[in-house]
Amino acid sequence: MRPGPIERWLKVAAIVAVLVLFMAPILWIAATAFKSPRDVYALRLFFTPTTENFVASVGAPYFLGNRTMNSVIVTLLTLVLSLPIATLAAYAFSRFRLPGGRVWPLGVLATQFVPPVIIIIPLFIAFRTVGLLDTRIALVIANMSFVVPYAIWMIKGFIDAIPMDMEEAAMTDGASRLRVLWDVVVPMALPGIATAAIFCFVVSWNEFFYALVLSRNEAVTLQVGLMSARTERGDAWEIMAAMGLTIMLPMLVLSGYVQRYFVKGLNTGAVR
């Protein structure tokens, strides 16, 4: 039975309401980033756009360029280091019988339930002792502490679904275990690895708590840099919006390119 005109209009109204609910904050931030301070506090719907906020955020005390570079380097290093480690660990958990059985995989999963505020204390002391406090390496290690366990479990589900016969056939032909992993397992588990990569990128890029505690001056990321928009005249909303828009842009661009691959990876993992 085809829906009537009332049902169709209700459906359209519901979709519009959801879009407005989710898009309104983003549009508000985007508009505020191009407003002058006078227009921000006047709450004007129509205004003359300006790029002065972005220009001002580049210099002191905001340092948009340096902090964006810190965020990019920390995120990419976390991604590059986490994926090989997670893939190797997932393969080991999937294919080998380790002492203790399922204790190790469950132990890895259990780390996801530990509050970050508990982990940050020993990390802070350790990094201060070895001289890594306020460095990008410290932030990368901190990010890996919660990114790698999740990636291991996601990739492991895909490797579990790969038939052992294909690996045994390759090893019968003389391929080593690492060659089998690279030429057979990785291509077949690529949707899961790609999904884990997207997760690692998004979580590392948006991370705030560890960066707030472990960085002071040199390694301050863009997310922590938002706090510098609190000036003597109060919150500089136009500067904060300009920096916030810079944070959101990579996520918006990334979502446009990888959305279907991300959904495909999740669906494939669920079916398997």
Report on the structure:
The structure is a single chain. With 272 residues, the protein is mainly alpha-helical. The protein has helices spanning 5-33, 37-42, 52-58, 64-95, 103-110, 116-130, 136-160, 164-172, 177-188, 190-206, 209-214, 222-225, 237-271; strands spanning 230-231, 234-235. It has a domain at 61-223 and 249-271: MetI-like fold (Orthogonal Bundle), CATH 1.10.3720.10. The protein has 13 helices and two strands. Helix 3 (52-58) crosses helix 13. The longest helix is centred in the C-terminal third of the chain and has 35 residues, at 237-271. The chain is globular and about 75 Å long.
Summarize the structure.
This protein is mainly alpha-helical and 272 residues long. The protein is built from 13 helices and 2 strands.
